[in-house]
Amino acid sequence: MIDFAYRTSNDYLEAKEKATDNPEAFWNEVAITFDWHKPWVKVLEYDFHKPSVKWFLGGKLNITENCLDRHLKTQPNQTAIIFEPNDLSEAAQRISYKELHSRVCQAANMLKANGAKKGDRICIYMPMVPELAIAVLACARIGAIHSVVFAGFSASALATRINDADCKMLLTADGGYRGNKVTPLKAIADEALTQCASITHCIVLKRTGQNIAWNTIDLWWHEEIEKVTNNCPAEIMDSEDPLFILYTSGSTGTPKGMVHSCGGYMVYTAFSFQNVFQYQKGDVYWCTADIGWITGHSYIIYGPLAVGATTLMFEGVPSYPDYDRFWEVCAKHKVNQFYTAPTAIRALQKHPSELVSKHDLSSLKVLGSVGEPINEEAWHWYDEHVGKKKCPIVDTWWQTETGGILITSLAGVTPQKPTYATLPMPGVQVVLLDNEGNEIEAEAEGILAIKHPWPSIARTIWGNHERYKNVYFSAYPGYYFPGDGALRDAQGNYRITGRVDDVVIVSGHNLGTAPIENALNEHESVVESAVVGFPHDVKGNALYAFVITNDIIDDEEALVDALRAIVAKTIGPIAKPDCIQVVSGLPKTRSGKIMRRILRKIAADQLDNMGDISTLLNPEIVEEIIKNKP
Ligand code: 7RM
User: Fold this and answer.
1) CATH number at residue 127
2) Is residue 494 assigned to a domain?
3) In this structure, which residue's CA is closest to atom 13 in ligand 1?
4) Ligand 1: which residues within 6 Å by Cβ?
5) How much distance in Å is there from the Cα of 195 to the middle of ligand 1?
6) Is the four-CA dihedral 147, 126, 179, 282 of positive or negative sign?
7) Which domain holds residue 579?
8) Is residue 180 part of a domain?
9) Beta bridge pairs of residue 287
10) Which atom of ligand 1 is nearest to the CA of 509?
């Protein structure tokens, strides 16, 4: 079934050459290994200036037939999903491909019976339980466009996303377990829905059994599912039909609803999953991300299931009931590939190493990292304590926008280098640009850009193609611009140095500073604010907010508390600034732009190298802010 797995560095080099010289022939060969109802008439049509990208034009398919139906012939009893609940007292579940197929089809019929059809947007706001994966696949089965919203987001963040995509159905749960907390998902959803007119049906999964309010549009999942059969032929989709929308924060305004298509996304997530993790039949693979993020979409659900893998879903958090939960789960389910984020590694690294060594981790073959640059210390701790120096580490660079991993080593196949994501995947043409947009060669540091499309690139921003063009294709015409900087060594390995725009990665979460500033500005005492990131040894980055108030503040502590609460409410607790400083002014250019570069230095305590501040409108403010730093 899988004809595209490279096992040696030479295989990789050959594939890379082929994919660069003739991308269409290369991707044609990969795509042909999947089940299509109708083959494509053309592999690729694109124009980065428009911008427009289309893959496998005219091809007809349904991604769930590739993730489910085709495995029924070869491995119906193979475990598709292992579910590890939050609480150790609750038994783990193993769901076979046959059972998953049946449950997805039944859920798909439940959606249809409640009026959902191809092209409708369905919002999913659910905890990390199997029904979340089932809900995602059920949408894909009927051609409805899913928009998963992370269950840690607030009511107002949920409402914004529902309204942006004009969703007509919401799938949620009464509540969700995460560590020793119970999140009242239904109550949060109810609050959101007071601002959402488009939702006509809200289907509620019973997870916690807590008391909830009940509205006229509400339906119980367990009652609705009883009314339908498990026979649901897949909707036949065009390769370029949207599969899902997933929101990611931008540096201005509303979050961006990245739109991914059916054909290209399927081909690339399966291809990259297989090659990066070197998955072998029967292996148990675990990605610790939440399905609310792109990592969960591509590498818990679609990529692994498309190649017939066993994928583990974990409901809880790494610290519950203790800081060894990850290792306990690895030992319990004999995990072979383990994929997590540097922020989790750094948090666990702070605890005694016996918490790792007391568990039998001998099943581990491959370790992965994603979400932010992994620092040297965390890399070596991961290598020594978790991998026992026997497991290759894949440091995978990619984005919500890219759909799949673009720069990484292939486990045990291509060389690794600590803190380097290393080499682009075959077919991914990465370059470094200088500030003027010229390509720079050899060993260098610059702006990361990609000069040829890969199959899983997001096709647009929902409802705003102009913004898609502006953000990703305008700064450096002819290239895809991801917003990251990188350096390249003599062997061509890339090390991602971080964002070059106003997005800060906090604990692996991509947070735009602008929406946080907007939230702070809602407070009646706040006139203006500026939020920047600064290095944090566990979270990677933390947020520092500078606020100007309209009056003398008597109780600064109360103001700071109120501001943190506003941010938690409008965006989510993850976006709460670690530090909030009241200032009398912000360093500004003569055209009135806040000089965040200077604020970043102040926040990071890099005071000796402030750069040129003479161009500021108000250079004296810099001293004052430094002097009053809390
Ligand atoms: C998958 C994901 C995307 C941003 C991206 C980078 C940063 C992600 C790495 C990384 C260094 C990595 N999607 N990033 N992976 N930086 N090394 N291996 O995280 O849309 O949420 O974030 O994350 O800045 O642009 S995302």
Assistant:
1) 3.40.50.980
2) no
3) 399
4) 248, 293-295, 370-373, 395-400, 421, 482-484, 496, 499, 505, 510
5) 32
6) negative
7) 503-627
8) yes
9) 339
10) 21
341 CA to centre of ligand 1 in angstroms:
10
Residue nearest to atom 8 of ligand 1 (CA): 371
Q: Of 200, 235, 270, which closes a domain?
A: 235
Cα(198)–Cα(221) distance, rounded to whole angstroms? 20
292-309 tens-digit pLDDT: 999 999 999 999 999 999
Closest C-alpha to ligand 1, atom 17: 373
- For the CA atoms of 32, 38, 44, 46, what is the dihedral angle to 10 degrees? -150
Question: Can you give the pTM of this predicted structure?
Answer: 0.90
Ligand 1 atom nearest the C-alpha of 374 is 17
Q: Is the Cα dihedral 318, 541, 371, 530 positive or negative?
A: positive
Provide the domain count of the chain.
2
How does pLDDT run across 176-212, given as a tens digit for each residue? 999 999 999 999 999 999 999 999 999 999 999 999 9
Residues 214-244: tens digit of each pLDDT: 999 999 999 999 999 999 999 999 999 999 9
Please give the structure tokens belonging to residue 531: 């939020």
Polymer length in residues for the chain: 630
In this model, does residue 1 exceed pLDDT 50?
Answer: no
Q: Which CATH number characterizes residue 519's domain?
A: 3.30.300.30
Which domain-ending residue is among 205, 235, 265?
235
